[in-house]
Specification:
By secondary structure, the protein is α+β, with helices and mostly antiparallel strands. It has helices at residues 7-56, 82-87, 139-186, 203-256, 263-289, 304-314, 339-355, 391-402, and strands at residues 66-68, 71-74, 98-104, 110-121, 124-132, 300-303, 324-329, 334-337, 360-367, 370-376, 405-411, 414-420. The protein has three domains: 7-156, no CATH class; 203-287, Helix Hairpins (Orthogonal Bundle); 293-420, Heat Shock Protein 90 (2-Layer Sandwich). Helix content is 53%, strand content 18%. The strands form three sheets. A five-stranded antiparallel beta sheet has the order 1-2-5-4-3, with helices on one face. The two termini are 37 Å apart.
């Protein structure tokens, strides 16, 4: 699983890394300036030693190297130690440059530093060498060097801590309004959308809060309109549907007294009866889903096996003239359930299976409170829901509302829908 870094931590770590980089860079730069300063002092002292040697020694007597102010002055290049000549061959041709050679032990630790300075003026041309080691450095120089390093370290740590504190205070100042905005957004509901958003300190956050409120208010208004339309329409349709079904039943009774029975009239009445039954189930479903109350519908003893058989018989007309076989496998089961909702859910499952099956076998199996419906499934490109229709969207919403376990999966060449009606 990919680790998601929050924006707050991302900004904090970015600023912290930038701060540490700047402190480390300036610390290294300060250390480099300190070393360069020491080198310049050494070069100046070596230059003075060369000038003193040339001023005190006539040109015809400049034959042997001499020590001046702890610096060794060589009048000829060949007199310079072979190790330095091998390392600094260019020093003979490039005067007035301080060359430095670090000497290390076998274990890689530094034990001394050799300096070479080529002094060339009109009064003469000499080479000055000087070796620095722990034995040649005075206690005062060693103490000052240590003090400078400690001071540089303390300044670096203090600068890093000060910048980190400033960054923390800055991010805290910014993150608090953002956190309040997130908390306010998570508590929005239809009631709180009617009140103005609180002040989040910064104009940008206030504009964002206003935009969120406006967008959610627009969505809520659309949902309210849809709910009102759905609730009113579904409620108003119940009466004409009931009238429609009663008149269909009356037509059945009137037709039963006719001799002989008109087959065309019988088919028309059956089509009217089936359509009115479908409208009745759909209206009940929409009316139930549009209710604002979360209270469960009234329950009663339901013989689930008898109800499944009845629903199967009611929608068998969908298999007319189709080479489809129905396998109904039920067992006695009596549960306390909301019969209307169970009828809607199970009826949708069975109706969709029959409606979208063109040949093969539809298996309806009921074991206890679990109903499983399997029908042939042949997906086509761009359509992976041929096994069942849009009525299952309503079925899924009803199951979620009543916390019934519901699955709808494709298994090879079959589609299987299962629901468990828990009390």
């Amino acid at each position: 699983m990919r680790f998601a870094l929050s924006l707050r931590w991302f900004v904090w770590l970015t600023f912290l890394l930038l701060t540490l980089t700047l402190v480390a860079g300036y610390s290294m730069l300060s250390a480099d300036y300190f070393i360069r300063g020491m080198d310049n002092i050494t070069a100046l002292q070596m230059e003075r030693a060369a000038q003193s040697y040339l001023a005190a020694t006539p040109q015809d007597k400049r034959l042997q190297p001499e020590t001046v102010l702890d610096y060794t002055v060589f009048p000829k290049w060949q007199q310079v130690p072979e190790k330095l000549r091998g390392q600094f061959e260019a020093a003979q041709k490039k005067p007035d440059q301080l060359l430095k050679l670090v000497n290390r032990n076998e274990d890689g630790r530094k034990h001394s530093v050799d300096f070479l300075f080529h002094y060339s003026r009109g009064e003469g041309n000499v080479y000055v060498t000087y070796r620095v080691s722990p034995d040649t450095i005075s206690a005062m120089v060693r103490s000052n060097s240590r003090a400078n390093r400690e001071k540089l370290l303390m300044i670096s740590i203090a600068a890093a801590m000060a910048l980190s504190l400033i960054i923390w205070l800055l991010l805290r100042r910014i993150s608090q309004p953002v956190s309040r905005l997130v908390e306010w957004t998570s508590t929005l509901d239809p009631g709180s959308l009617k009140t103005a958003p609180p002040d989040f300190t910064y104009p940008e956050l206030n504009n964002l809060a206003q935009l969120i409120r406006s967008s959610l208010s627009s969505v809520q208004e659309s949902l309210d309109r849809e709910h009102r339309f759905l609730r009113h329409t579904s409620h108003e349709l119940r009466t004409p549907i009931s009238t429609f079904r009663n008149n269909v039943e009356l037509l059945r009774k009137l037709q039963a007294h006719k001799h002989p029975i008109d087959e065309q009239e019988k088919q028309v009445i059956e089509r009217l009866d089936r359509s009115s039954l479908t409208m009745k189930h759909l209206t009940e479903t929409l009316l139930w889903l549009s209710r604002d109350s979360a209270q469960a519908p009234p329950t009663q003893d339901v013989a689930l096996h008898e109800l499944i058989a009845q629903l199967t018989n009611e929608v068998e007309y969908l298999l007319k003239d189709k080479p489809v076989e129905v396998v109904l496998d039920t067992e006695p089961c009596q549960r306390v359930l909301p019969e209307t909702v169970v009828r809607i859910v199970a009826g949708n499952l069975i109706r969709n299976a029959f409606q979208h099956t063109w040949e093969g076998t539809v298996t309806i199996r009921q074991q206890g409170a679990t109903v499983e419906i399997t029908n042939p499934y042949e997906p086509t490109p761009g359509n992976t829901d041929l096994g069942f229709g849009l009525g299952l969207n309503l079925t899924e919403q009803l199951c979620q509302k009543l916390n019934w376990k519901y699955t709808n999966t494709a298994q090879g060449s079959e589609r299987c829908a299962a629901v468990t009606f828990s009390s």
